[in-house]
Amino acid sequence: MKTDTLYQHGTLALLVPGLLTGTLTMKELLQHGDTGIGTGEGLDGELIILAGKPYQVNSRGEVHVVGDDFTLPFANSHFADYQPLMSVESASKTDLNQQILELSGLQNAFFSIKITGTFSGVKTRAVAKSSQPYKSLAETAKQQSVFTRDEVAGTLIGYYSPQLFDGIAVGGFHHHFLADDHTFGGHLLDFAAVTGDVSIQLFSTLEQHLPVDNDDYRQHDFAQDNIKEDVHQAEG
């Protein structure tokens, strides 16, 4: 079990033109990690994997455990081996991200963070599943639902990617969230403050898996796409 390897299926860049077909099953993804994030075919909700269990937050805000046959166009996973980094009290999202980078000194490395605690002013989102023919990421992401909680206890799982790899992943932080009672979660857009414990896991290896059996992916000309702008607009 490699705890220094981050496994990534697909890239965020391939989502930009609407290559949203599920090209990896959840069963296959879980062979590469017990922790992670992702989205389903057609941008079907937001996923967060904790202790080997994959939770999907759909566009109605419902949280479900998905089966082995659930397919994904994009996902990250790894085997958890988090190490304590710090405790925070009433830290904003911006301050938290800055503190993590300053304390870890890992701005040019891939790493994951896990935060358990109480979050206030939380805003998450989940996109409604679309059907073929798929539209672009920018168009599909408009069909999103935004959810808020004044205060909620839960877990944040996030990945940091160096700016050098922007487009393959999101350059910077990409966070998903799941409430402890499993009634709330999604892609984490923002929070006002968090009080809790922060742990970190550094990766020395990125294992990039591409959907080479998918004809649409093999034939697409990515030179026509505005990759970075569309990725950051959709993920922001």
UniProtKB/TrEMBL annotation:
Keywords assigned by UniProt, alphabetized: Acetoin biosynthesis, Decarboxylase, Lyase
Entry EC no(s): 4.1.1.5
UniProt enzyme class: lyase
Listed InterPro entries: Acetolactate_a_deCO2ase (IPR005128)
NCBIfam families named in the record: acetolac_decarb
PANTHER family: ALPHA-ACETOLACTATE DECARBOXYLASE
Protein name (record): Alpha-acetolactate decarboxylase
Organism per entry: Levilactobacillus fujinensis
Lineage: Bacteria, Bacillati, Bacillota, Bacilli, Lactobacillales
Gene (UniProt): budA
